[in-house]
Each structure stands twice: as C-alpha cells, then as structure tokens.
Amino acid sequence: MGRAKKLIIDTDPGIDDAMAIFLALKSPEVDVIGLTTIFGNVYTTLATRNALHLLEVAERQEIPVAEGSHVTLKKVTKLRIADFVHGADGLGNHNYPPPKGKPIDQSAASFLVEKANQFPGEVTVVALGPLTNIALAIQLDPEFPKKIGQIVILGGAFSVNGNVNPAAEANIFGDPEAADEVFTCGADILAVGINVTHQVVMTVADLEELSRSEGKCAKHVCHMANLYFSYHKEAYGMDGVYLHDPTAMLAAIDPTLVTYAEGVVRVQTSGIMRGLTIFANMRKRFSEITEWTNKPTVKVAVTVNAEETVKLLMARLSKP
User: Fold this and answer.
1) What is the pTM of this model?
2) Which part of the chain is the Inosine/uridine-preferring nucleoside hydrolase domain (predicted)?
C-alpha cells in the first residue's frame, strides 16, 4: 500500500455525515488532516459541535476542526435546515453532552488554503455540504484550484429530480452561487450526485448487523439512526436509508467504485430552477460564445458498485 491520501472533510453533521466521517477515520488509505464545518443539515455552530463530538467518539481529538461560514456566498443566512431528517441536534435527537474539544482559531477557508499550500497536489477535500467554504478558499487564494489535489463533491442531481424540490439537490440548493463558482474553478473535481447515491441503500437488516458488531463507531451510528430510517420510510416508503455521504467518501477513498463522465457543469442560481445542476457532455461544438464556452470540465459519477460500497462501509464501521 502506498502513502495514505491526505483528506479534509468539509461537513455539516448530519447522521450520514457521521457515517462518512467514521468511515474515513477507519480507512487506512486516507489520513484525515482536518474537518471544516458548514451549514446544511444543521447550522454551522452546531455542525462544529457535532464534528468535535464525532472525533471524541472515534478517539481522534487530535484532528483539528475549523469552523466555516455561517452565511452563503451572497451573505444570506440559511433558512432551511434538515432537522426533519437528522433531528434538531443533527444526530438523531439524542442531545449528546457538549464535546470537550474546541475548534481551532482559524476559518475553514483559511485552513483549506493553508493545507493546499503546505501539501500542494496532495490534499483531497471531500465536500459533504454546501460549497461555501470551498468557494471562499478560491476567493482567498485564486491559485487554490491548482494547489488542491482533488475535490470530491457530494452534490447535484444529474438527469434526475432533486431532493429539496424537483429541480435541486440539497447541498447545491444550500448555496448555488458557491457551487457554480466551484464547478467552474478548474480544480480536479468529482461530483457524486443523488442519481448515484440513490442506488446505495443501507437496509434495516444491515443496521441490525452493525448493532451486533464490536465497533464503537458502528454502535454510535446505530444509536443515531432511528430518526434517519423513519424519515426515509415516511418520505420514500422504503425500509432503508440512502447512503449519500458515505458513497461520496468511498468514491474519494476508492475511485474504482464509481464510473464517471466528463463535461462542464453549471448551476442555475435564480428562479424556480435555483440549484439545478446541468451537465454538458461537450459532444456538440457550439459556434456562438455562451456562459458555457471555455469552462473547465469536471467528472460526474454515473454508476456505482452499490453492493461493494455498502459492504465496505459495514466492514470499516465494524472495526473495533
């Protein structure tokens, strides 16, 4: 095995964020060098608290947590949080005791820029929430897209309906302007949208199997998961949950789990389609100059080995 890949997780925990964070911490292929927090499933302050809590559960308090933006790129406070999915506390309404740790005295954007400069070409950012912190890092250092190794984005709904409304997926809807800036910045980007993550399901039987394991992280996931399963039953009529964040995390850890297409992605930033992700495969050469002309291409996941993804998640979380 080669040297572990340096990973920063930009996160809004979130029950499935918790699964993805634990998964990364239990994966020898990656070295988690920091967590940055953002609004999304919860407000940013609570995201920071939850990130610190999850690191304590995993006994990895040495990993720094940098708090991210409390507002969108356009300075708007997020109005919609997913408390109906993840609970008012983001972790299943268990109101865990406050973590002992504190975030570092550095913004998420500044931390991202610092690490990209410290380890040029070596750092992968796994963005599990709205892309505000990443966009702010680009504004802070316009060379950031060239210095960062890869950005794996959980976001978008490519050729399928969204999960906030028919047009938009939640993370992109959270800050469409930031998403459009990131998708067109020129970095090495892999987007994992709900067209792929909806293929990856943890069943009730999987959860019961996890509960029988000796893994501390597995037991914590099981403790948090009831509300998440209840939401999926009510919203989708399914006896299981979509593994959004863990799928994106595993695409960063083991890229062979997904296949992808390459093209330009733009994000609609106004109207009833606000948050819509449009993928252009660039097969046709358009003669006129448009907002799509000369934009850098990104990778968009189109298939996933769902069975192997669930199997890997279960195995990693079950580690003592």
Assistant:
1) 0.97
2) 7-309
* Distance between CA atoms of residues 277 and 156, nearest Å: 6
Catalytic residues: 12, 244
CB 131 within 8 A of CB 265: no
For residues 133 and 139, give the distance between their C-alpha atoms in angstroms, rounded to a whole number: 10
Measuring CA to CA, which residue among 91, 134, 94, 131 is closest to residue 116? 134
Tens digits of residue pLDDT in 12-44: 999 999 999 999 999 999 999 999 999 999 999
For the chain, domains (ranges, CATH) are 5-317 (3.90.245.10)
Q: Give yes or no for a cis peptide into 14 (omega within 30° of 0).
A: yes
Q: Which two tokens stand for residue 67?
A: 């708090």
